[in-house]
Amino acid sequence: MNDEVRDPDRGKRRAGFLPDVLDSSVIAFPLMERMKKEPKRLHHIVIDLNLNFPGGREEARARVTEFIDQTEIIDQVEQDSVNRERSSDSGSQYVFATLDAKAIKAIVRMDRERARDLPAQRAIFHVWPDFEIQALT
Asked: What's the start-to-end Cα distance of the chain, in Å?
């Protein structure tokens, strides 16, 4: 595996870990593209919990829920544009939410900071765009 990453400040490739681009590795590329194009839009997302999180998926779910609730403080000015909903199945490895781009980035950033950049300590494994399932034809 190649450890080179693009340095966002210089546009050049360099070896090593860049925490500034970690959000884009946790947030799925199609969702990142949508967030860039429509940052104010509400995005239906699926937060895939880290199943190896210390304390298990219940603790991971509790942490993610806490972060979603904390985005209310961050987004007080834009509070009306952010809708929060959570999965009611406490055994699921997924949390469903409808958030704007700023709130999505905030919860990923809070998770990274709480984990002190240690991937095994992160509650969020991946954030995906949610979409309606359709039958194959």
From this structure: 37
Beta-bridge mates of residue 5: 14
Among positive and negative, which fits the CA dihedral 51, 52, 53, 58? positive
Tens-digit pLDDT profile for residues 5-46: 454 555 555 444 444 444 558 999 999 999 999 988 889 999
Q: Which pTM value belongs to this model?
A: 0.71
Q: Which residues constitute the domain of residue 70?
A: 21-129
Q: 3-class SS at 82?
A: coil
d(CA 49, CA 57): 7
What region does 43 belong to: left with phi over 0, alpha with psi -120 to 50, or beta?
beta
Q: Is 70 domain-assigned?
A: yes
| CA distances from residue 23 to 29, 42, 76, 107, 116 in whole angstroms, order as listed | 10, 18, 23, 10, 14
**Domains in the chain, number:** 1
Between the CA atoms of 56, 59, 61 and 63, what dihedral angle is there, to the nearest 10 degrees?
-140
pLDDT (tens digit per residue) in 31-87: 999 999 998 888 999 999 999 999 999 999 999 999 998 886 554 444 444 444 545
